[in-house]
Amino acid sequence: MNGIGFKTGIADRLEELRELYAEYATAFLGYECTLVDVKNSDRLFRLEQLVPCFHGVVRQQPESCSEAQQFFLDIALRMAFISLSRRLSGEPGTFLCETPENALDMSYVQNVATMFTKFAKERHSVVLTANIQEHGLYHHFLGEINPEQTRQRVLNLLDYGLLSKVHKAAVNGLRKHSPKT
Predict the structure, then answer these.
(1) In this structure, are residues 15 and 8 in contact, taking their beta carbons and an 8 Å threshold?
(2) For residue 145, which phi and psi values (nearest 5 degrees)?
(3) Mean pLDDT confidence for 72-97
(4) What is the model's pLDDT at position 26?
(5) For the chain, percent of residues with pLDDT exceeding 90
(6) Does CATH place domain 3-144 in 3.40.50.300?
(7) Which residue from 43, 63, 67, 92 has the highest number of Cβ atoms inside 10 Å of its Cβ?
(8) CB 112 within 8 A of CB 69
(9) For the whole model, what pTM was predicted?
């Protein structure tokens, strides 16, 4: 492959990555989010950085996004890389993630569920861990699935984990709000 073909191939893959990221990040935020190139000011490396842009603002510094936005935009980028890998290899990937949905208000929890559902529909495996909450993320994933499928898809650590004294004392309340397995 000559230099021009190589550069074109890289540019094509970057464009695919941008498209995938925009789909996931936009699903999370609920409004358009893209990746834009920003010049790196490092003296040794002149590589451009890809940073999120939404509401017309380029988010060069992590602090220009809320903590929850930082976390889930990072997840969107990781899922975009896995999806790009699937497109190139033809094989689905696996994504392991601890979801901090307690950092989100109710409106974003549904958006996160939409983002992960889109990813899973591409035949990727998704392993999510979450704290037990009254209206946690798992309700959005498992609410319409029959109990037998829930038993096949959910490993409830209340059943298998080594519980602390605090968890043992609260186990009945925790079970009330956790998936029935």
Answers:
(1) no
(2) -95, 140
(3) 92
(4) 94
(5) 30
(6) yes
(7) 92
(8) no
(9) 0.80
Token readout for 124 is 């990727």
Closest CA to 17 of 70, 84, 82: 84
Number of H helices, E strands in the chain: 7, 5
Please say whether the dihedral angle defined by the alpha carbons of residues 104, 107, 111 and 117, taken in this order, is positive or negative: positive
Dist. CA 52–CA 14, nearest whole Å: 14
Q: How far apart are CA 98 and CA 32, in angstroms?
A: 25
Determine the angle formed by the axes of helices 67-89 and 3-29, rounding to 10 degrees. 130
DSSP string, 109-167: HHHHHHHHHHHHTTT-EEEEE----TT-HHHHHHTTS-HHHHHHH---HHHHS---HHH
* φ, ψ for residue 74, nearest 5 deg: -65, -45
Match 């950092």 to its residue by tokens: 103
Q: Are 100 and 136 in contact (CB under 8 A)?
A: no
Q: How far apart are CA 168 and CA 84, in angstroms?
A: 43
Please say whether the beta carbons of 47 and 40 come within 8 A: yes
57-58 and 33-39 beta bridge pairing: unpaired
The answer on pLDDT for 101 being more than 80 is no
Q: Dump pLDDT digits (tens) for 70-79.
A: 988 999 999 9
Nearest to 11 by CA among 43, 48, 40: 48
